[in-house]
Specification:
Layout lengths: L1 H13 L3 H18 L11 H11 L1 H14 L3 E3 L8 E3 H8 L8 H38 L17 H5 L1
Antiparallel strand pairs: 1-2
Helix pairs in contact: 1-2, 1-6, 4-6
Organism: Gossypium lobatum
Pfam families: ABC2_membrane
Keywords: Membrane, Transmembrane, Transmembrane helix, Transport
């Protein structure tokens, strides 16, 4: 939940309208949810965009993997498959069925999530600071831009030659 709040804070600092911020944040989180490995397993995601950058950027990836590791590691289940061993370990279920990366523990997943919170909060802070510093500079240069010169005429209405003679 803290990661979601941090993402929404970052989006809110970029988008000027609150309604557009909600829409943009929901879109970002929807894309992350689709690529997090819950709806489609990691090996089923297309490689160029959806797997390599998006799968590893999505916080759902590490949330799901940490949850699955917490629940299935160390357990043993009955195997209903013909010709297989009578039981199957939770680690094998994670590796083969859920396609979870077992190269690290659930605590690494938690550390990645905490680091995402820190990174998004730093992005929020950086955007706020840069807007505070850049906005007055932009206002100054826009106010100091060359203005159109206007001549003040004594009589701005055109006078025809006949009126001059009268």
């Amino acid at each position: 939940m803290t990661v979601v709040e941090s993402i929404m804070m970052t989006v809110a600092s970029i988008v000027p309208n609150y309604l557009m911020g909600i829409i943009t944040g929901a879109g970002i989180q929807g894309i992350m949810l689709l690529n997090g490995g819950y709806f489609r397993l990691p090996n089923d995601l297309p490689d160029p965009i959806w797997r390599y950058p998006m799968y590893y950027i999505a916080f759902h990836t590490y949330t799901n993997q940490g949850f699955y590791k917490n629940e299935y590691e160390g357990l043993s289940f009955d195997n209903d498959r013909a010709g297989g061993p009578p039981t199957i370990s939770g680690n094998e279920v994670l590796r083969s069925f859920w396609q979870v990366d077992m190269g690290y523990s659930k605590w690494v997943d938690l550390a990645i999530l905490v680091s995402m919170v820190v990174i998004y909060r730093l992005m929020f802070w950086g955007i706020i600071i840069s807007v505070e510093k850049v906005k007055p500079i932009l206002k100054f240069y826009m106010a100091a831009s060359p203005k159109q010169s206007s001549m003040i005429l004594e009589n701005p209405t055109p006078i025809s030659s006949q009126q001059e003679m009268v």
